[in-house]
Amino acid sequence: MFSSKKQLFFYQLILSFFATAIILGIFLRPAQGWIAYLQSQWNHWQSSSLFVSNQAVTDAHVKYQIDADLDTANSLITGTAVVAIPSVPTDNLMFYLFPSTYKPIAIEQVQLNGKTVPFNANAYQLTIPLGGQKKSVQVKIHFSTPIPAAGTRLGETQGVWSLTYWYPILAVWQNGNWIPRPHPYPFGDPFLMDLADYQVRLKYPSHFKWYTSGTLVSAESQGNQSFSEWKADRIRNFALIGGTGWHETSWQTSEGVKVAVAVRNESNLQKLKTIVDNAVKTYTIRFGNDAYPSLSVLEMPTGTTFAHEYPNLALFSDDIWNWKNGEHWIAHEIAHAWWFSSVGTYKALNPWLDEGLADYSALLYTERTDGAAAYRQMIADDWALFRDGKSYAPNRYGTPVQVTGQPADQPYMNFTNETTYYYLMYLRPVLMYHDLRSVLGDQKFFNFLQQFYLKNRLRTVNRQNLEQALTDVDPNALPLLRLWLDTPNEQVIAQVRGRFEK
């Protein structure tokens, strides 16, 4: 069989190599198995490589330089926002003034390229005529923002100052017009904004601790006052949460993201750390790396807004621990670091896009931490609500809704109550993603979500981007996506019932 001793030697050497490899493979086998391990390493490599390339994008965009003073004695923040706009599409500028539900932002002076100019401002928006200029401009806006004594998005309660949507934000330009600021309701997110670079300097009482959308650049104290400066590139707005009484822990992920967890009640710190750690790992494995260098998850005082998200910040009221599904909503808010911050949306135009993905991601968190049976039970519970026309809203769970004839793809402005809003913007998309997963299988489904995420980080997406990602994986699944988004509610239930009630 062997023509020489040399051939026999090489044959024996090859057999020894394969035998050694098999033995090592058995003894060194990862807990999750070699296939799952290699798949996770591949996902990690893909995520890491795309993370670098996305950070290298250098297209021109808006830059904010904000210098502000927090006057806690008078519950007021005053300051200037210098906004550099590289390309002006028309002969006027519009800025949104968001916190008008309490007292509106006061605009005191506007300067255009160094010269004081007239302006028009109401409780909702600021308009600045440009006098025919249609090129790059620099606008300096002098403003003051009253801060209510309340646990609202913008407000102060129990020693915590929540500074969100606190300065004029450049409006969104679409289809040849500035989009007017959406009318706010006491639910959801009536917000629109584009990516921008931020440099923010704040004067505040020295004993305050801050969690923000940016990275700390410098800090100094002068007597009982402190000055801090933060920087953030390509984010949608800049929020700051500060005050006293925090208990904190922090760590750095293997992907290099600094994660901070802070609570008001120290006994909740380890519990929250575990939730955040598991959620971040789940979303990194399933979608890819967080596009930003930091993420802070904060337990806010009792009575504050239930749960909400800002760039690199996830907030929830400590009341959430008393809710049956509170852990789910914490995982949901953390998921917004992927779906809203990293991959952005115009929340007021298509809220189902980021809310549906964030809520389905929270189910993936449950699946990873509690097992497949727990995931299936949550889907069964969600289907029962959907089939029976019951609300998914945390504060009005199980309340009957009127959704006959309605599709899912609707803007925020179409809704007047939170029960219908949560049913169509959260519950229906969650079931849509589960249905797509059932039809596509796990490999194709998670490839679809991962490619949608990795190809669109640090960008603002719409429905067409989601459809393109699905088409790239399996164009035959596109009609199912459109069924869930466009078809009247009762027809969707009739057509998909068989897959949910096997």
From TrEMBL:
Gene Ontology terms for molecular function: metallopeptidase activity; zinc ion binding
InterPro entries found in the cross-reference section: M1_LTA4H, Peptidase_M1_dom, Peptidase_M4/M1_CTD_sf
Family annotation (SUPFAM superfamilies): Metalloproteases ('zincins'), catalytic domain (SSF55486)
Peptidase M1 membrane alanine aminopeptidase domain sequence ranges: 326-473
Domain of life, per lineage: Bacteria
Pfam families for this protein: Peptidase_M1 (PF01433)
Protein name: Peptidase M1 membrane alanine aminopeptidase domain-containing protein
Originating species: Effusibacillus dendaii
